[in-house]
Amino acid sequence: MEKLQQKILTEGIALSNTVLKVDRFLNHQIDPHLMKEIGEEFANRFKNEKLTKIVTLESSGIAPAVMTGLILDVPVIFARKKKSLTLTEGLITSKVYSYTKQETNDISISSKFLNKDDRVLIIDDFLANGQAALALIDIIAKAEAEAVGLGIVIEKAFQDGGELLRKKGYRVESLARIKSLENNTIQFINEEEKI
Amino acid sequence: MEKLQQKILTEGIALSNTVLKVDRFLNHQIDPHLMKEIGEEFANRFKNEKLTKIVTLESSGIAPAVMTGLILDVPVIFARKKKSLTLTEGLITSKVYSYTKQETNDISISSKFLNKDDRVLIIDDFLANGQAALALIDIIAKAEAEAVGLGIVIEKAFQDGGELLRKKGYRVESLARIKSLENNTIQFINEEEKI
């Protein structure tokens, strides 16, 4: 997605060889128009999949997921990282190990919102090692629903999450695929190099 | 907002005299079309305020805030409850005391996204005792920006946050104002009773 790549180049910052800061339009400040275009792009790529639900993870996945859900006319569920006071019984939970934070956290979705007839699109802001995506897939499987594919805003293609998920047979659509962040330079994988 | 009130009546659950569960369309599962209509309503109410930014708090405020920002053509910033790895320097922080959880938490916004020329609309899913709203107002004041008003999806009008903020002179626009949740019955304040 050309506009997203331009935005990453002009407003993103390669903080290290593995960390890309995009807090100017995605992770802290949000550009609503870009989110709408991202939603249109995901909706277009998955429009023939007969989706019934979109699942994301709080917080940065919510804006692109809601824009996609608006166009595809399906509800969006955001998995919670923390247990809510008003959301206690009937939770489906999975564990996410964060390499960057070196800790394991539970994420949960209320079982009443997913069932065996659901065809689910997972949307998230980043794909790195795939741990969050695998936990969402695990929750969807526990609900006996089907994870139809993943819509990722930014894939760090130099980490192994994308390969891992594609090898397992999941359709992964990433709107920007980062080849490298070395030397504080953001490099993308060109379309020709696409897996 | 009639449609929102109907949604609360049909899909909301009064869990106790103070807790309203709206996880079917706002707090966990999100209805994107309703969020769009909420965004249109906020945009319409604040369209003459020359807003430059919208500020909300992760996670449930993000969807209505982004829809409002899309229509008003302004960026949305979500205050973070947890410090991010890629968001460390230049934070403006304030404390929120949660009566329900009985704990104090920091919320933060990066100082680079707010400045003295900003006219800011605060959007949040709930207004109860006003602690989160006051913390956001405090952050906006520390940035020398102006908090122009508050757009609240659901105000628990039987708690004192709304009165507190209005007495301080803030314009508070709540799309649904709950009078009471007693006896597991959701009652709204009618328009005639509006402050």
From TrEMBL, chains A, B:
It comes from the Bacteria. Xanthine binds at residues 20, 27, 156. The keyword Transmembrane helix does not apply. GO terms for cellular component: cytoplasm. The keyword Kinase does not apply. Its EC number is 2.4.2.22. Keywords: Cytoplasm, Glycosyltransferase, Purine salvage, Transferase. One of its GO terms (biological process) is XMP salvage. One of its GO terms (molecular function) is xanthine phosphoribosyltransferase activity. InterPro entries: PRTase-like, PRTase_dom, Pur/Pyrimidine_PRTase, Xanthine_PRibTrfase. It catalyses: XMP + diphosphate = xanthine + 5-phospho-alpha-D-ribose 1-diphosphate. Pathway: Purine metabolism; XMP biosynthesis via salvage pathway; XMP from xanthine: step 1/1. It is found in: Cytoplasm. 5-phospho-alpha-D-ribose 1-diphosphate binds at residues 128-132. Gene3D superfamilies: 3.40.50.2020. Homodimer. NCBIfam families: PRK09219.1, XPRTase. Belongs to the purine/pyrimidine phosphoribosyltransferase family. Xpt subfamily. Converts the preformed base xanthine, a product of nucleic acid breakdown, to xanthosine 5'-monophosphate (XMP), so it can be reused for RNA or DNA synthesis. HAMAP family: XPRTase. This is Xanthine phosphoribosyltransferase. It comes from Gracilibacillus dipsosauri. The gene is xpt.
